[in-house]
């Protein structure tokens, strides 16, 4: 068992802190707002993000990053992807030199097109054997309710992945280990964008054939970019790929799918933003992933159309009609 720090007390940071505590680890949870940390410590509940769920007593919250990470063997990062860089710059002096740094985030940075593991390596100087990713079909509220689910722990060092796997294996959470960090991160990021597209179709009133078509072709274009940036193609068939895509695109709990659904129903991006307190990563990552694909000469029509929709350059109806009327071609990845 290990001393762990979870940096970010939103939905997934808190739910994953529960997983770590259930697995027998000591968990310090860093929260941005002192008053939320006080509530968590006093009531053992994150009333803002997971109301009604009793947190294990082994979780203690703090607003002080130095206190959160002091002596931590495992530092878990769970803030919105576009906010990671700024936070990590201010936290990096407190990250213990030998700690393994685990990303729970599913996004690609705007401007740099970097995956979160690349941002972590750049800012902390940690080598690949100290950087890991957890990704899979893991909607926070279901995990916090201890509903059975599987996930993937990826680290280039298989031994480190296996150690982390043991540290987060509980009676309801079953992690698999793997070494494909690139594939895992790309799959987790792209599924949010495909989830937005599926949500748009749901909002327009379309049914399961439409959803399945977007999911399948979404996975194909994700795998295409994966092949270009060095991912293992098998990853896209697994929990971080197909698994997460199915969970996100099927569930009303998904913030990305819900965001798209509201757009499909006729709300503007600004209106949906105004109603959304939690992060829908695909809204930003559609831009960075679309640019990354272009840099690698890879076509990602669904991602590109979602980026155009978010930019206000096309309507939900146009998104669907333009995708369906693209030139006919063989079904290849
Ligand atoms: N919620 C899920 O079901 C789930 C599951 C798997 C992965 N993820 C991923 O985990 C990451 C975190 O998502 P979440 O669901 O916890 O998001 P959230 O919106 O529920 O919470 C985000 C947390 O980050 C904090 N935050 C926001 N802006 C910040 C800033 N500028 N500086 C520091 N902290 C800031 C918020 O206060 C909050 O504690 C995302 O990349 C998401 O895609 C989420
Ligand atoms: O709520 P979403 O759309 O951010 O999805 C949450 C998780 O990533 C599902 O695995």
Keywords summarizing the entry:
phospholipid metabolism, binds nicotinamide-adenine-dinucleotide, binds SN-glycerol-3-phosphate, lipid metabolism, EC 1.1.1.94, G3P_DH_NAD-dep_N, 15 helices, 333 residues, 2 domains, Rossmann fold
Mean pLDDT over the full residue set: 97
Name the structural class: alpha/beta
- CA-based shape: globular
Largest sheet descriptor: 8 strands, mixed
The protein's oligomeric status is single chain
Number of domains: 2
* CA-CA gap between termini: 42 Å
Number of helices: 15
Ligand types:
nicotinamide-adenine-dinucleotide, SN-glycerol-3-phosphate
- Flag low-confidence runs: none
The sequence of SSEs as H and E is EHEHEHEHEHEHEHEHHHHHHHH
Q: What's the CATH topology label of the largest domain?
A: Rossmann fold
Describe the structure.
This protein is α/β, with parallel strands linked by helices and 333 residues long. It folds into 2 domains: 3-179, Rossmann fold (3-Layer(aba) Sandwich), CATH 3.40.50; 182-324, N-(1-d-carboxylethyl)-l-norvaline Dehydrogenase, domain 2, CATH 1.10.1040. The protein is 51% helix and 12% strand. It contains 15 helices and 8 strands. Strands 3-2-1-4-5-6-7-8 form an 8-stranded mixed sheet, sandwiched between helices. α8 packs antiparallel against α9 (208-229), α8 packs parallel to α11 and α8 (181-203) packs across α13. The longest helix has 23 residues, at 181-203. The radius of gyration is 19 Å and the shape is globular. It starts with a strand and ends in a 9-residue tail after the last helix. The mean pLDDT is 97. The structure holds nicotinamide-adenine-dinucleotide and SN-glycerol-3-phosphate. The site of SN-glycerol-3-phosphate has 13 residues, from α8, α10 and α11. NAD(+) binds at residues 8-13, 140, 255. Catalyzes the reduction of the glycolytic intermediate dihydroxyacetone phosphate (DHAP) to sn-glycerol 3-phosphate (G3P), the key precursor for phospholipid synthesis. This is Glycerol-3-phosphate dehydrogenase [NAD(P)+]. Sn-glycerol 3-phosphate binds at residues 106, 136, 191, 244, 254-256. Its main location: cytoplasm.
């Amino acid at each position: 068992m290990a001393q762990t720090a979870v940096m970010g007390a939103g939905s997934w940071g808190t739910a994953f802190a529960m997983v770590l505590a259930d697995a027998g680890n000591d968990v310090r949870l860093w929260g941005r707002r002192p008053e939320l940390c006080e509530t968590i410590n006093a009531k053992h509940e994150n009333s803002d993000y997971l109301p009604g769920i009793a947190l294990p007593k082994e979780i203690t919250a703090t607003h002080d990053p130095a206190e959160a990470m002091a002596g931590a063997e495992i530092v878990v990062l769970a803030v919105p992807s576009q906010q990671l860089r700024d936070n990590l710059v201010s936290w990096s002096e407190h990250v213990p030199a030998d700690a393994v740094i685990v990303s729970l985030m599913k996004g690609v940075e705007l401007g740099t097109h970097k995956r979160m593991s690349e941002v972590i390596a750049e800012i902390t100087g940690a080598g690949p054997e100290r950087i890991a990713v957890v990704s899979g079909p893991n909607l926070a509220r279901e995990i916090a309710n201890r509903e059975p689910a599987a996930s993937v722990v990826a680290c280039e060092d298989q031994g480190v992945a296996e150690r982390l796997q043991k540290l987060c294996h509980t009676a309801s959470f079953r992690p698999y280990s793997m070494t494909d960090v690139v594939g895992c991160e790309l799959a987790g990021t792209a599924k949010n964008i495909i989830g937005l597209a599926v949500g748009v179709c749901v909002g327009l009133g379309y049914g399961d054939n439409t959803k399945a078509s977007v999911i399948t072709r979404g996975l194909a274009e994700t795998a295409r970019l994966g092949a270009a940036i060095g991912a293992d193609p098998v990853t896209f068939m697994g929990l971080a790929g197909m698994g997460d895509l199915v969970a996100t695109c099927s569930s009303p709990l998904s913030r990305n799918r819900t965001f798209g659904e509201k757009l499909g129903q006729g709300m503007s991006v600004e209106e949906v933003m105004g109603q959304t307190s939690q992060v829908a990563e695909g809204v930003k990552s559609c831009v960075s992933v679309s640019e990354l694909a272009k840099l690698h000469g890879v076509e990602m029509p669904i991602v590109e159309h979602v980026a155009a929709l978010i930019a206000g350059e096309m309507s939900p109806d146009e998104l669907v009609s333009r995708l369906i009327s693209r030139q006919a071609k063989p079904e290849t990845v």
